[in-house]
């Protein structure tokens, strides 16, 4: 059993799952959730993310074996497909039950976000619309925190725009190191059609759109003039976008570009916490 748990954890894309969970925690803090609601939001998002990661590797197991992905526990046979699917489905149920305890609207929106992510795993990633699930899921993501509050409410439109833009950047950078392996197994999503350089340029633009939205959104909506903290975080996000572009031009695509995009998302979430611009 411990071996199966380790294999499932390794199949869940633990790095991105933890980062997204931390983002949810930060947004919950920015939305001033009570400790119990903050804990339920964080647990619901973590369970949902784990389900997405495990289902992705379960669906891709044969493809991963074909290209020799020894880093994939399901493809290696460390855990059976039956166990993996049982865990993925069970985690979705846990995630949605916790969401329902927060609010019915939260449960519905979280269900849509997770369905979008599962749709990507199930085949949308092999189409020119592969970026759409990321835009949908990340665009809805800020509302998971605000719909967990009392009373529940949807996030501001600028937060939705920021989430969708960052979601596109996450997708465009996440697949870059796997372009060759994907080509061997017939995967042709949007980044594969655009090419590495165009994908990085669009990803950097998405990061910048996210930064501008978080900086200027409260200003436009509530006449809340950005303070020094907001400007410092915006400068950091711009630096991350520029760093991504320069690195992509000088070196082959790597996981570093994806990590830089997630760093930008964490910076913006931290900015929201510090400025209380929920």
Please tell me about this protein's structure.
There is one protein chain. This protein starts with a helix and ends with a helix. The protein is globular and about 55 Å long. The chain has two domains: 1-127, Tetracycline Repressor, domain 2 (Orthogonal Bundle), CATH 1.10.357; 156-278, Four Helix Bundle (Hemerythrin (Met), subunit A) (Up-down Bundle), CATH 1.20.120. The protein has helices at residues 2-11, 14-30, 35-59, 61-66, 73-76, 81-102, 104-122, 132-146, 157-174, 179-184, 190-194, 196-222, 228-250, 255-275. Helix 6 (81-102) packs antiparallel against helix 7 (104-122). The protein is mostly helical.
Distance between the termini: 42 Å
**Count of all domains:** 2
Instruction: Briefly note the CATH topology name of the largest domain.
Output: Tetracycline Repressor, domain 2
How many beta-strand elements? 0
Instruction: Describe the sheet with the most strands.
Output: none
Following the backbone from N to C, one meets helices and strands in this order, namely HHHHHHHHHHHHHH
The percent range for helix content is over 70%
